[in-house]
Specification:
The complex is a heterodimer of chains A (65) and B (316).
Chain A (H helix, E strand, L loop, with lengths): L1 E4 L5 E4 L4 E2 H8 L6 E5 L2 E2 L5 E2 L4 E6 L5
Parallel strand pairs in A: 1-7
Antiparallel strand pairs in A: 1-2, 3-6, 4-5, 4-7
Chain B lengths: L11 E3 L4 E3 L1 H18 L8 E5 L4 H12 L3 E8 L3 H18 L3 E5 H5 L3 H8 L3 H19 L4 E3 L4 H13 L3 H6 L3 E2 L8 E3 L7 H10 L16 H15 L3 H20 L6 E2 L6 E2 L5 H17 L11
Parallel strand pairs in B: 3-4, 3-6, 4-5, 6-8
Antiparallel strand pairs in B: 1-2, 7-8, 9-10
Helix pairs in contact in B: 1-2, 1-9, 2-9, 5-6, 5-12, 7-10, 7-11
The chains are: A mainly beta (65), B alpha/beta (316).
Bound molecules: iron/sulfur cluster and zinc ion (ZN) (2 copies).
The site of iron/sulfur cluster has 9 residues of chain B, from helix 6.
Chain lengths: 65, 316
Amino acid sequence: MKVIFRIPKPHQVELQGRRRVSELARELGFNLESHLVIRGDDLLTRDAVVEDTDTIEVRPAISGG
Amino acid sequence: MRCVKCHETASVDLPSRNAAYCAPHYLEHFEYEVGHNIRSLKMFTTDERVLVAVSGGKDSLALWETLIRLGYKTTGFHLHLGIGEYSDLSREKTESYARAHNVELIVVEVEEAVGATIPEVSTALRRVPCSGCGLTKRYLMNRTARQQGFPVLATGHNLDDEAATLMGGILHWQMDSLGRQAPALESTHPKLGRKVKPLYTFSEKETASYAVLRRIDYVVDECPNSTGALSLLYKDVLNRIEAESHGTKLRFFQGYLKNLRPALASTGQKVELRECATCGEATTAEVCAYCRMVDRVYKWKQRRVAPTPAPVSPPT
Ligand code: SF4
Ligand SMILES: [Zn+2]
Ligand SMILES: [Zn+2]
């Protein structure tokens, strides 16, 4: 699967094998309280399963200032 | 996870509320609660004109969208701060939202009002950009609201903003600001409008979820000056606690509103407001902080453009 981060710096991570969003968050070190996990036009909950062929975006929901 | 309403696959899970929703039911839940917040704190009615501060980010656009859908009379207010590409993109997204929804938008250029952009103000004052920026936003929003006949001003502050401000206030025991922090503030002077924050019960993730599911085209990038802001550190700490103990942020802020604020309000000193000798706006000082800032920026600009005197050569 492809995991895209646009913020703070655009980068992309490739992972093998399906897993739950909560496992993904633990592995990649982001907090689900402050990040959206987006697949296409939809949002994924923490128990949703991301497939090997999926492309998802992890987007911080926190703004400063 | 299944939607608590229809048992379809959920798109948004809200552990702090023990609930999960599919996209349509999440949008319904969000809009219902915003309406409930407005009515229960008597923020405004459908007869009043509301000026909505819109930055182009997720919170303010989510707020505007919801108020329009709930049938409130809104006008957007956007300040173009002059912070490079970030500000240009913010204005562009705000204007295109207003056009697409056929709603009125007032755009004010900080460079015209203050005489300099926010980065220039920061250089002139030798202070972090957020200090002049915050002051400018508060002043111009309030003045515009009054001049254009809006009795109430709505901002997109969410639960994370409020909880982080509260945490900062407590860590540094800022008793003045602690006593004043509230989701609905009455006018305290004929020249100050009411200020309300209808999204104060929603976390940032909840407002962002609403914006994404409503397909609102918002500015995802952050203001370049926000990196390293203390408020971001407080938000991060609060969200780490939230991940271990759901509902902490909401209980923290609601608890303050219920327990601490009334106590502070009854013991706190009343601030005496008068009119600024220069501009006539409400202030506690002889000349308001905004006018003093504009004056310093003006003098800084004068020094910059003044030609350096030519060396005087001795008479021959
Ligand atoms: S981060 Fe600071 S400078 Fe940027 S918009 Fe917010 S208050 Fe203004
Ligand atoms: Zn549903
Ligand atoms: Zn003044």
